[in-house]
Model the fold of this input.
Amino acid sequence: MAAPLMDIAVSRNGRRVLNVWFGVLLVFLYTPLALLLMFSFNDNNLPVFPLRGFTTDAYEAFAANTELRASVVTSAKVAAVSSLLAVLLGLLAAVVLVRRRLVGKAAAAALLLSPLVVPYIALAIGLLVFFNEASVSPGLSTIVMGHVVLSIPYTILILVPRLERLDMRIEEAARDLGAGVLQTFRLITFPLILPALVSAYLVAFVLSFDEIVVASFIAGDATTFPLYLFSQLRFPTLLPQVIAVACIVMAASVLVLVGAELARRVAERRLLGEQTGQPAP
Amino acid sequence: MAVEAEKIAPPESARGFPGRPRPALVTTGLLAPPVLWLGVFFLVPVVLIFLYSVNVFAFFPGTQGFSLDAWRNFLDGSPFLDLFWKSVRMSLIVSVVAVVAAYPIAYYLALIASKRKYVLLLLILAPFLVSYFLRILALKVILGDQGVINSFLFWTGIRAEGDPVPWLLYSQFTVILTLIYVYVPFVALPIFVTLESLDRRLLEAAADLGASRWQTFRKVTLPLSLPGVIAAFIFVFIPTTGEYFTPLLVGGVGGTMFGNAIADQFGQSLNWLNGSVLSFFLLVVVAVLMGIFARYLTIRRVATG
Amino acid sequence: MSSDQTRDDPITERRLGRGDFLKLGALTAGTGILAACGADDAPEPSGAGGTTGAAEPAEEHPPIEQEQGNLEVFEWAGYEYPAYGGEDGVLKPYIDQRGKPKFTFLTSDDQALGRVRAGYRPDIVHPCVDYTGNWVEMGVVQPWDTSLLTNFADLEEPLVTGGQIDGQQYFIPADWGFSSPLYRSDHVEPDGEESWALFYDDRYEGKISWWDSPLENFVIWGYVNGIEDPWEMTDEQLDEARDFLMSKKHLCRNFWSSQTDLDADIAAGNIWIAYAWAGSYVAARDAGLDVVYSEPKEGRLGWNCGFVLGAETENFRHAHEFVDIWSSVESAEWIINNYAYGHANTSVDLAKVPEDYVSVFHLDNPEARQEPNAHYARPVTTERRAAYAQRWDEVKAA
Done:
């Protein structure tokens, strides 16, 4: 059994430093969110100090605000679908880019990565005019189409390094043993790259959920959450509700995180049980 | 289950397996969907932008007609060109700092916190689900004249009461700080993916051969993680050059970037002609930069490989 | 690790050579040619740029029951259901009878124009009067049939006239208000009389905020410098204004574009002097600050927003009913009480309105809103607007 990785990758002091650095990042990331949480219970339309008084008005108002809720659901739907498409298309592209021979591959790569290069606002205008000329009425589906374009470069940039490092001999061994192409993919490749696929999906989801520039031009009569939020900036009356929504989203994410950690521990214990031949504790 | 030596085929994917379609067709078939998607939903709009920039299309119908005047005006020393270089400078700072700051995070996640890594990864990505606007709103509270930081400075006596540090908010500094804040978790991801798939045995081999941890890092880990680092750099450098919302919200008067000029042309100024010129210019420059960068990377890899 | 030499280099190692870029360029150019061929078929906005045909007489529109009924209103945030048309809201009668309209939100007049230009076709839009000409120019709106509006007679005359183009009522006025310097009296003391020149006061460097708008900043400069009609300045005057504004730009903390951000900045003490609408005055007072809504000697600026009707609408009568409710006295009272804006309906009983709103915003004094006391935003031709906008962009880029 090889020496534990931790000894090779980092010294004890190094580990402490990295721990601290990670902690610093967490503080940076979550302090503003903690502030938002505070303000969501604050009796003031504007998120400024000093704090005025505790109130749950914002949450109650949010519960009653069908438009706001609908916009959050819309954003989630758009993000879920567009991310899935982006990961699928990105995977296809990554496979070709990493493993196949192709004349003009660099040109294809340039095309696939080029949405990174165009300012979103210009792309948004271009898309809107394009949909107009193609007589496609702007709406949820057009936002999805646009978001897929934005996300594909990111999914490719995540999947390509992973596929590069994938030892193809494992797959070829499977093929030699008689597995079909799809079988190999399903049983060998897919589980190996699953973390990268999940990462790519998360990145695309987050990108789409919070995306406003493109959405603001090609949403037509659909309203995504960022759109709703941006339009509310004109009057601060609804701002507390929006902050309340953000806090609810945060709380939901925390729940997911806690759930994931618990699940991992359970799985680990079970695995330990199997290995030692004892029933799981 | 051990794999017998004779059965390891030469790693040539073009070799024919029984019942397998011709490799070229498969390749085209695989690549077609993403390329087509981008061809339609990206190339065509970009071409439309170009056509707007030469006035073949125009915002108010009836004023169109091919003309290079807008390009000439822009390239001939307009203030927008200076703004462009300023944006590139700011982006470079953001990108370098973000990648440097994110690398230890990715390293930590991939190689040290092995068991908890996905949960921790989710932990640093979760804030993204909270709307970007609201996080910036909260940042403003922290950085403002009577905000958290300045209040702390007053309280400890470092600054006199009523004499806040003015450049924390609404300045170039704010934009750079905010962009780094927003991008670091994002940027950690590709580095993480590369490090996570690192073959541990290489590190062990290095150790066995007598390399110190630092040497292992420098000669093995770092070079192997370079694709991820490059990807990370691209992740942040290119979008931030055209960044628009952050400078709008926290840039104040001195922190405006090229993206603001573009947004204004398409928005307030209804000057789609000029806006298209600026957009297309940004596109071309960044594409060239990316090309140069990829080329530089090739030489490096050959040199260290 | 596999050492496949015949495998192509991964993309991050492969050079993006000149040959490949050329191929990509050829592909793009080819698409461009195809697209340009299709340019002739580019849909012209209906009504072919600027025609002002007479409105069809009401009899030629089908009765309301036969209309689609799915009214779509392109609105400013804050005016929609549920805030405004909520359970006991002003829009309730309309909603009960005709169903809830669909609201989409615009963030600025220009963004609204941009979206409609690129193909979005709502039934009603809520722009401000100085853009009416641009909307008509684009050919996407038609005149209203005022005989269908029961509250029309109550609407203030000058505002109504302001909404006419070639004698056709393209614009029904709704809400109006002032724009004036707002400043914190505990920190700021004007140098002499109240004046727009406060925006250029060197003593308050870093504490000033101008509105991010192509027109108004030049107009303000014009009034401060005694120009006869700052809304129609010459290119030379505009250049002079631009250079001056560039020199004074460093006094500003930021240029605000969202009122919420401005209110937050004032409440947080980041800004002491700002170009502001009534809502900011109310917000600052609510935050417990001592503020003055200035009466500059050059005169305040004013604005007036209202409704235009989509040229292709299938909900002609629904639209008129909607706007009619908006023009009612109840609606006026709601707007005044909640946003401290004025409303075009002159039959409002001002006794029902908070007293200082009436005095600070001159709700009872129509003359305070007219020249030379106040300068309302007026239609500016596209060409002139572009000249202002170009220089404003240069000020911002500097």
Remarks:
- The CA atoms of residues 74 and 181 of chain C lie 29 Å apart.
